[in-house]
Design brief:
CATH topology of the largest domain: Aspartate Aminotransferase, domain 2
Family: Belongs to the class-V pyridoxal-phosphate-dependent aminotransferase family. NifS/IscS subfamily.
Cofactor: pyridoxal 5'-phosphate
Pfam families: Aminotran_5
Number of strands: 12
Keywords: Iron, Iron-sulfur, Metal-binding, Pyridoxal phosphate, Transferase
Radius of gyration: 21 Å
CATH class of the largest domain: Alpha Beta
Largest sheet: 7 strands, mixed
Number of domains: 2
CATH superfamily of the largest domain: Type I PLP-dependent aspartate aminotransferase-like (Major domain)
Structural class: alpha/beta
GO molecular function: cysteine desulfurase activity; iron-sulfur cluster binding; metal ion binding
Order of helices and strands: EHHEHEHHEHEHEEEHEEHEHHEH
């Protein structure tokens, strides 16, 4: 491929980090890389030791009291969310048959919000907590939905489209006071901001958001929390995710998790400053471009997501024009690409349909070249000016 592309869609899937390649390659060079970690022979035990080392690292990166035995490696974030939400909801109901209701936030990723129908088919009722206009779902939005019949409350750590950081600790405290379990999708936030997970019962992460290989993820469920297994056929990963695990992938995920979590104090403010610069250029008066949740990137926002809407121009038009110029961005969640409907997140925030249809998400981390961000802003402003 001769064309040069500027990739600005890290929130969909971030470029693979050399540390991930090195960790995976080092494991694959070992004589036990071929072995099943469930086997009792020497090579199997060595593979198991590598897997458990990765589990310890991921648990340490999650912090907040999660233990290695709480962590189950999965094949992706969607799987981790499905197993976490349904497994915890059914576990809570088994412990207390009166708890037959699940509360989801309206800004959850599709892999959580789309569980409403399967949960109803399993005998649960589902209530949805709407955000305020800033995109945050606070305890004031969740508390009216709580009661002694709630099995589970789900609130993501930070939104994958707008970058809005959710008040997880406050919502979790309110939910726990009512006796409900709490699940947090931390897939977009993990490795980018500190996570306040102390009151939380279950959490999901995915490696490809931070530069680990695609297909690497983890679900953590605290010991002693009621959980009903959703997959069957083996006792691997505590029974929550049976099947032969991808040890090389787990090792790579652990290496990148440790790297990114350790670098948050330095990386977060630097990337946030880049995002503020992009907002400042794109959302200047007269451009016809507006931020979806405010242009000030602070502690209530993920540092590397710029979320805007363009007046009078649809996302598809913008994305194809930018792609032709070598800039790769998205309209929002990559899992919803191809949909003719506006983002359910922006709709829940009260953004009018005609504006929401012109949404763009630009995402990056500390590896981005600031000159590429400037060139992207030049191109988008020129594209919008031509179409408007």
């Amino acid at each position: 491929m001769d064309r040069r592309f500027v990739y600005l869609d890290y929130a969909a899937s971030a470029p693979l980090r050399p540390e991930a390649v090195a960790a995976r390659s080092a494991y694959e060079a070992e004589p036990w890389a071929c072995a099943n970690p469930s086997s009792l022979h020497t090579l199997g035990r060595e593979a198991q030791a590598a897997l458990e080392g990765a589990r310890r690292t991921v648990a340490a990166c999650l912090g907040c009291g999660f233990r290695p035995m709480d962590v189950s490696f999965c094949g992706g974030g969607t799987e981790a969310n499905n197993l976490g939400v349904v497994g915890l909801a059914e576990g809570a109901r088994e412990r207390d048959p009166g708890r037959r209701r699940v509360v989801l936030s309206a800004v959850e990723h599709d892999s959580v919000i789309d569980l409403a129908s399967p949960l109803k088919a399993r005998g649960f009722s589902v209530d949805v907590a709407s955000p305020d206009p800033s995109g945050a779902v606070g305890p004031d939005r969740v508390a009216p939905l709580l009661g002694d019949d709630v099995a589970l409350v789900c609130l993501m750590a930070a939104n994958n489209e707008t970058g809005v950081v959710q008040p997880v600790p406050a919502v979790a405290e309110a939910a726990k006071a009512s006796g409900a379990l709490v699940f947090v999708d931390a897939i977009q936030a993990f490795g980018r901001i500190p996570l306040g997970l102390s009151p939380v019962d279950g959490v999901s992460i995915a490696g490809h958001k931070i530069g680990a290989p695609q297909g690497t993820a983890a679900l953590a469920v605290r010991g002693g929390v009621p959980y009903r297994n959703q997959e069957f056929g083996g006792g691997q990963e505590g029974g929550r995710r049976p099947g032969t695990p991808d040890v090389a992938g787990a090792v790579a995920l652990a290496a990148v998790s440790e790297l990114c979590v350790g670098a948050i104090p330095e990386v977060r403010p630097a990337v946030a400053a880049l995002a503020r610069g992009v907002y400042g250029r794109l959302c200047a008066p007269g451009t016809g471009i507006r931020p979806t949740a405010g242009a000030e990137v602070g502690d209530d926002r993920l540092p590397g997501i710029v979320s805007v809407v363009v007046e009078g121009v649809e996302s598809e038009t913008l994305i194809l024009a930018l792609d032709a110029a070598g800039f790769e961005v998205s309209a929002g969640s990559a899992c919803s690409s191809g949909s003719l409907d506006p983002s359910h997140v922006l709709t829940a925030m009260g953004i009018p349909r005609d504006l929401a249809l012109g949404s763009l998400r630009v995402s990056f981390d500390e590896r981005v070249d600031p000159a590429d961000l400037d060139a992207f802003c030049d191109e988008l402003l020129a594209v919008v000016a031509r179409w408007r």
